[in-house]
Specification:
- With 431 residues, this protein is α/β, with parallel strands linked by helices.
- 22% of the residues lie in helices and 29% in strands.
- The protein has 2 domains: 130 residues, Immunoglobulin-like; 293 residues, Rossmann fold (3-Layer(aba) Sandwich).
- It has an 8-stranded mixed β-sheet with strand order 9-10-12-11-14-15-18-19, sandwiched between helices.
- The chain is globular and about 75 Å long.
- It starts with a helix and ends with a helix.
Length: 431
Amino acid sequence: MSVTRWCTSPNPSITVTDTAPLFDEPIGITITGCQPNSEVTLRTRMPLPDGVYESALTYVSDQRGTIDLATVTPIEFESHVPTPMAPFWAMEPIDRQQQAPPEALVRSVAATLTARGADGGLIDEKTIERRLTAEGVTREPIGDPVVGERWLPGGDDPAPGVILFGGSEGGLPPQLPAGLLAARGYAVCRLAYFGVDGTPSTLEGIDLRDVRSTIDRFRSTAGVIGDRLGVMGWSRGGELAAQLAPTDPSIKATIVWAGSPVRFHGVPDGYSNPNPAWLDGTTALPSLQISPSLRFPARLVRAVLTRRPFRLRPLYQRAFEHATDEERQAATIDVGETAGRTLLLSGGDDRLWPSDRLCARVADDPSVEHRTYPSAGHAIGVPYRPLGASLVGPDLLPRVPVALGGDPAANARASEDGWQAALDLLFETLR
């Protein structure tokens, strides 16, 4: 058999340090019993609710016939820095069909690791359970029509609350961070501020009073410690999160992923001129106007012809640079004027908008920490999720995706460091 050709042990095997980790917890992976100094391909396949993902990475065993992912790197990587969780973050989609209804609560997924020798012979196969949340976690809708969900960790003791906001895609934010935070003992609110019934259809004219009203309903829930809250948002949702803390003393932690402490106009449906994104009652909050340059149509045509990802960053950078000092100051959110602490996380190669530059504008405040990752892009967040295709987002035009920037390895490193920093801040301020 091919196994004996590529293995020196009668029982070659894949060993993992945890067969049922939370999705954001790293695990150790070791392959033993291989032929010394031989190539072994580790193929990892995992279904998620939005599709099936897979990676295939090749490693070289040491003189003992062992591959420890904590000490070696795949031959496909240029960097020689070990990346033990690469089989998971290097995954790319191989099937975009929904594996579960969007409303389903998926508590775990099965990831299958298959090791084969250079001749294709099977060495070993191992299946682990990656838990998206804990068994005791429950969820229920907020509002009628539904504009949010509350996720409760279970148990008899009340829990500090964390409110989550997604980005310009609209609707409810992803389940993954909600499930992981609830598994760690937080009461979580997934809040939709546009794109569902009962909210604006586009990211324009979002009334912060409506958002606060939903938060008040969440904080009044039995089991939620309403005077100790955190807010966490991604992209434009980070812009929203940053605006809430200065007016709510119960918000002790604000976490902004690839977001902005500077307000911009909204995102319209189609190519009409955008209106202000944020209102307080009937009053539009100061924000920077996005106006394409004369080069914008030519860039768009070139992207269509070449099918290259399209960078939106120049639009936002131009809006910032063309504004007056007074306009920039009025649009800047007073993130330091809060009762708590703020964590800003940005990528230096963010090609959707200049989150690194915008966050740096307020980074000198003593209550603000800004972590920027020079080679990372816009797609930073929960670690160890598939990032192999994280350089681009949805299509702006047919077959012309939005450029997100970075590279998968840099996005993975930023996500790992940023998520741990976010967990640390929540623990320090809410526990």
